[in-house]
User: Fold these one by one.
Assistant:
Number 1:
Amino acid sequence: FCYNEHHCDPYAWGDTFPSCHPLLEEHHSPINLDYQMSRNESLGALHLEGFDTVQTGHWTLKNNGHSVVLQVGSGMSVSGGGLPGVYHTIQLHFHWGSLSTNGSEHTVDRRRYPMEMHIVNMKSIHPNVSAALEDPTGLAVLGFFVDVVYADNVHLGHITRKLSSVAYKGWKNTNNPTWLLLPEHNMSQYYRYHGSLTTPPCSPVVIWTLYEVPIYASWSQLEQFASEMYSTEEGEEDEKPLHNNFRHIHPTFSRSVYASRDAKLLLGRAAPPLSSALPTHVFQITLLGGLIYGL
Ligand SMILES: [Zn+2]
């Protein structure tokens, strides 16, 4: 599969991977996150085990032709926050755009962030990923939007410094583990829904947790992802850049999307409901207030 060529791009995945076909399965990811969600007071912060300590063991950074993947060692897990069990962390990877386009997979109120990081976790009762893909809640993915600021993110730097060593498909390198990538605060603000893998086989087995508060990267760090990576192997005649590696947005259909107890962004910003009981002039003031606030 691929992202940027007509014959194998995300719209064609269903030809080769039946479960990627949008008409056969109604649990596809990514989706747009908008005001059409309800708050679930029982969704508190997830419990992240081993994320704040320096892990030992073999961590591998790899270009698999579709993304840059950081395979992690054992010792990290995710639970709580409404997850049905303990999930072991297996890898993290990124989705990005190009030098002129944003490339997050999920969108927030139709806005696409520059990048998105996925931390993939597998339910601990399963011996391997193929077993987890048979369980409707076999995987839990934590999604973090990445926004661009002026300063380098030193923690992300542990990965971006090594990008040139995994420039081509199949290239690997060891990596120094760092979990300080995650935000220190606001980890209880997130959105939750049931969806799928965003890459083939698109299995509808993912409990998604998308954090409201983005992590940060500098423009030059983003540029390294967008312009230094290749989806082809070294020496291939037809060298192809690895960029715009995000799947298109899918309808939520009848699925529920929940805001966690502390989520602020979308529900906090929602317009007040129209009410005929409200005198017109009050409404105009409210709208004007909104405009001023917006400036
Ligand atoms: Zn992903």
Note: The pocket of zinc ion is lined by residues 93, 95, 118, 198 (CB under 6 Å).
Number 2:
Amino acid sequence: MAKESKKAVDFDKIKANLGKEFKPVQILDNDANVVNEDLMASFSDDQLVDFMKKLVWERALHEQTMNFSRQGRLGFYAPTAGEEASEMGTVSAFKENDFLFPAYRDVPQLIQHGATVTEGYLWSRGHVKGNKFKARALMPQIIIGAQMVEMAGAALGLKKNGEDAVAFAYTGDGGTSQGDTYEGMNFAGAFQAPAVFIIQNNGFAISVPRRKQTAATTLAQKAVAAGIPSVQVDGMDILACYQVAKEAREFAAAGNGPVMIETLTYRFGAHSSAGDDPSRYRTKEEEQPWFDNDPLIRMRKYLTNKKLWSQDQEDAYIEECKNSFKDAIKEADGVEPEKVSDMLKNTFEVPTPDIKAQIAEFEAKESK
Ligand SMILES: Cc1ncc(C[n+]2csc(CCOP(=O)(O)OP(=O)(O)O)c2C)c(N)n1
């Protein structure tokens, strides 16, 4: 009879201890109560109003862009409503010479970092001029997770050049299920590169809920294996998102290696303007608490109570923003349509013989 075997390892216990929850960082809670007085005191009134304006700007950009999209005036657009605190809070913490690697839902951050709204619209149309902005950034990445590898390499470059700058990249919860994100984290960790990984956990990768994508308790903990410190932050609190990103930037810029931030946020609408129907994969009961948690509501409430903001001010600012977006799309409409030869010329810095032949072929057709 076989002896009952003793065990060297208690996997049940190890598994139970894997999922240590982080306490997400918060400054202003869902009801606009200040939960961290010290940090709140570090913001000036002007700064607080500026954050509110950024939230309103991004919501207005979203609404106007959806209208243009419905009018058939744009190509791909990834709706951003609900993610304004996560996007505006984090991007505001970075400096002009920091290198941004956005994904397709991060065009508003790209604009805040120095691209124009017109360039954003040209990018949506697939126009090559939409990729030629002066911002220190790569164009928004469509391949899920790929920007994390590029960002890690760029961060190492910044370090080797002795620049006082960091690289920062965005992806979604789905992006953390992709191999590239692990590779990027591993590389940045191994080389202690000044990289800030920002995971915007909006609950879904198109229709796949976060809980079906991974057995990890948090996405933040995925950084741990790469030796990267990580944190969860309330992604509906713009002040907390800003503060955490600012501290992450400082940590990375000071030569301490990479950092990862997971923002807990929600996508209010469809995945893309292509028109998926969220009611097919989520319920009203699940959505409502997030709608109540709208990042604009809590800041508006807090600032209105402090007499720093009013509905009239907000309405006037929305009008101003929307007029500027209408001017931007007119400017985009005035740009000469892209030629196939232009697209081919931008494929490689030095075209291959095949591409050279194709350029000649299309230039001959286009000159007729
Ligand atoms: C490598 C790769 N696989 C699949 C896709 C198709 N795809 C486009 S968006 C998306 C979901 C991404 O979800 P997430 O990273 O959570 O970002 P979100 O869209 O929610 O901002 C997928 C799978 C892709 N673009 N690239």
Note: The first helix runs from residue 11 to 18.
